[in-house]
Amino acid sequence: MTAAGWSVYEPEQDAQGSVWAREREERFAGALAAQAAFGEGRGEEADELRAEVWLSAASSRLVQTVAGRAGLRPCEVLAQLAERIVVGEDGTVSVPHTVLVISEASGAAGSALLDT
Q1: What is the pLDDT of residues 32-58, one digit of tens each?
Q2: What is the torsion angle, in degrees rounded to the nearest 10, for the CA atoms of residue 36, residue 31, residue 49 and residue 69?
Q3: Which site in 23, 32, 40, 113 is 20 to 30 Å from 56, CA atoms measured?
Q4: Among 50, 47, 30, 27, residue whose Cα is nearest residue 38
């Protein structure tokens, strides 16, 4: 700056610095917009649960077999079972006899009875 004859820094004379500052402000505004959009999405998902489940080998094989027969993914089988959970007055948890709903996207048609 001194070699260019500036006694003090003057942003209007610093073309490259001004470009970088503008780019930084644009990135910051974009990040704020993305954060706001993420926050709105989180509000809609507040009642949803995303879980990673570790099953025993026997339970895992059963879920995979049922999923394969029904044309569903194992997570879809578990989600449908979770939607049908019944909690008794004494606190016992069960899933009554369930008919899995097979999505048209799976290529299978109809439904599959899961005898639980």
Answers
A1: 888 888 777 666 666 778 788 899 999
A2: 120
A3: 113
A4: 30
| Residue that the structure tokens 């644009």 belong to | 26
Q: Cβ-count burial of 72 within 10 angstroms (0-12 exposed, 13-18 middle, 19+ buried)? A: buried
99/114 Cα distance (integer angstroms): 6
The pLDDT tens digits of the residues spanning 57-97 come to 999 999 999 999 889 999 999 999 999 999 999 999 999 98
Q: What amino acid is encoded at 55 in this protein?
A: L
What does the radius of gyration of the chain's CA atoms come to, in whole angstroms?
28
108, amino acid identity? A
Cβ atoms within 10 Å, residue 103: 13
Q: How many whole angstroms from its chain centre is CA 48?
A: 10
